[in-house]
Amino acid sequence: MLRVADFIDALNRGLALVLRWFAIAMVLIQFGIVIGRYVFGVNSIWVQESVLYLHGALFMLAGGYTLLVDRHVRVDIFYAKVSGAARRRIDIAGHVLLLLPAMAALGWWSWPSVRNAWKILEGPISVGGIEAVFLLKSLIPAFCLLIALQSIAILLRLLAGKTRA
User: Fold this and answer.
1) Would you put residue 129 in left (φ > 0), alpha (ψ -120 to 50) or beta?
2) Scanning 28, 30, 102, 129, which has the fewest C-beta atoms within 10 Å of its C-beta?
């Protein structure tokens, strides 16, 4: 059980190592857009959309890592004031009753849109933009999968009586 959890953790950690470069790329591209527009009077919809694509990929694909390192949003009305055993029960209930069903629902309801986007290879958002909206929409099920996998890894550790990796 713990080997599976370790594999999922490694997957999300490895993905995070790649995705952190997306933030730097976004800053550099946006800087280039500003310089191009205001200094040279040059503008490109394709380049502007590349920032949107990088932003979407960064935040959607880093969700599993965020869950892994416990930096997600937590409503801790009760959580902060209870014992370790109660926190463990709250975590298990949260993953089983809230997080996993929410990811299943989001994946289920977004799938027709993603499937149709791939079927027609959905084109750019704007004229002259990146011709890969189907890739952008594919981030939704990828997000659901990465969050669900990380949730399962955390559940495996909780059920084994371990704390986070």
Assistant:
1) beta
2) 28
Q: Answer for the pair 23, 58: CB distance below 8 angstroms, yes or no.
A: yes
Q: Which two tokens stand for residue 138?
A: 């594919």
Domain count, the chain: 1
164 in a structural domain: no
Would you state the pLDDT for residue 162? 79
Q: Is 18 exposed, middle or buried (0-12, 13-18, 19+ CB in 10 A)?
A: exposed
For residues 67-73, give the mean pLDDT: 87
Tell me how far apart the alpha carbons of residues 105 and 125 are, in angstroms, rounded to a whole number: 26
The tens digit of pLDDT for each residue in 78-95 reads 777 888 888 899 899 999
Place of tokens 């079927």: 119
Residue 32 lies in a domain: yes
